[in-house]
Amino acid sequence: MAKFEVIGTASIPGRGGELRLLQRNDEFSIRIAGKAGELMNTRLHGSEDALAELACERIAERPAVRVLIGGLGMGFTLAAALETLGEDAEVVVAELVPGVVEWNRGPLGTAAGHPLDDPRTRVSLGDVGELLRREPGGFDAIMLDVDNGPEGLTREENDWLYSPRGLAAAQEALRPGGVLAIWSAGQDPAFTERLRRVGLLVEEVTVRAHRPGKGAKHRIWLAS
């Protein structure tokens, strides 16, 4: 079997460290330099698809829907959101690492069907937390796929996003009846309670990393 080869590197703003894009034939992987394992892989995106589908299906019938995705990744959540929403929707993607956007505009884009080229897509470079604070009542749905979930992996600053203050900011950024969807690599009962303490109604859904029904079990919280 062919080996993965590094085809791109990108610095992580604010904290240092480096992301690496690797390719093996038509398979891509994103990893953190110096750490074992991978952050994401183009062959395992079932739960990223589900994050968008579960959130967007709840608000898709609204006119001129506006949604926010925190974390571009490999573009699969964005692609699934665009597939679910109407032609008058706007999908804002907040991505901290400029290199990740470049990869999605380049060699990585084919995997998800080049969703950045869709005219409904808007890219916001920077911290999704800052965007939440700037736009109260700005979104019908907010989907967060940052690090590996409530336990920050690439940036300690992401802990704020999952703190009571961060969750309150997300809640304030939602329009009436909106939905907050959060992806995680695993279960976190304490985080479920944290969502409830800030006044959100919470549903937990277990999804698989690979469809149909295969791969690791990931968790999605749907809060409204």
UniProtKB/TrEMBL annotation:
Biological process terms in GO annotation: polyamine biosynthetic process
UniProt protein name: Spermidine synthase
Sorted UniProt keywords: Polyamine biosynthesis
Alphabetized InterPro entries for the sequence: SAM-dependent_MTases_sf
Pfam family name, one: Spermine_synth
Keyword ATP-binding in record: no
Upper classification of the organism: Bacteria, Pseudomonadati, Pseudomonadota, Gammaproteobacteria, Oceanospirillales
